Here is the input.
Amino acid sequence: MSKQPVIELAGLTKRYPGSSVDALHDVSLTVDAGQIFGFLGPNGAGKTTTISLLVNLTRPTAGHIKLFGQDNQAFGLEHRARIGFLAGDMALDKGLTGSQQLEYFGSLRGNFDKSYVRELAKRLDANLNKRIKTLSRGNRQKIGLIAALMHRPELLILDEPTSGLDPLIQAEFNKLALDRQKEGKTTFMSSHVLSEVQELCDQLAIIRAGEVVTHASLRDIVTAAPRVVRLATDKSFRASELTKGLDGISNLVRHDHTVSFNFTGDINQLLARLSRQPLKNVTIQNAELEDIFMSFYQGGKATDV
Here is the structure.
């Protein structure tokens, strides 16, 4: 028997009052327990709208959401007890210290493990004794991350979680996310930081102008993307002998003694064809996530949401 998905979106559509276009249109995806799921897109593509719907800050125009196998609107209060949430525009009380702010959040939840908060503060190098108004953007982000993590939620929903963090703290956040995954807990994170998504996420959805344009495992997305092939040749190289009858070659460029192209076909057929050519060197690289991401945005522009 298959496990119940932690998140199920079916036909999710959101149109704000007064707008003539959908902020989200017919979005369907699932997130299984224990996954770190990346929701990728530029600013204005619909990421924050989706998260607002997930945490019940707004209601869908059409479609439905299930969390933990239950309707998200009918069981909203129960779901919030099982979720940790970090908003992209989180609101903190600037007159409080970090410690006071976290104690306040903990008292609202009724679940406040002070020793775990101290552990998180140490790992994220967060000073909880300073007033929030004196903290930089990155140090306020640390307080928000601790607030989302402090009750050890089953599901963590994060909107741009590493915004403002320095590289060392970003790396520590990645370790925290992977530690949670080992415990079977789930993370749904929106981001436009491609390196972060590539390092952490095992499943990925890319959204453009309110519509999901791909949803698959990161490995499958990278594998299906064109490989980049570069050849060092001599004058006797014949491009026509390489391309004739071989599917999957595109964007072939020849300059002096170098040839480059994208390839989506059978790699064994390509290698057999190359073995008959006068070559000095061959490099074949999988596409970078940045190249894949940009390929979904060529010829289109995300609308503001």
Notes: The CA atoms of residues 40 and 165 lie 19 Å apart. The longest strand covers residues 7-14. Residues 299-305 have pLDDT under 50 and may be disordered. The first helix runs from residue 47 to 54.
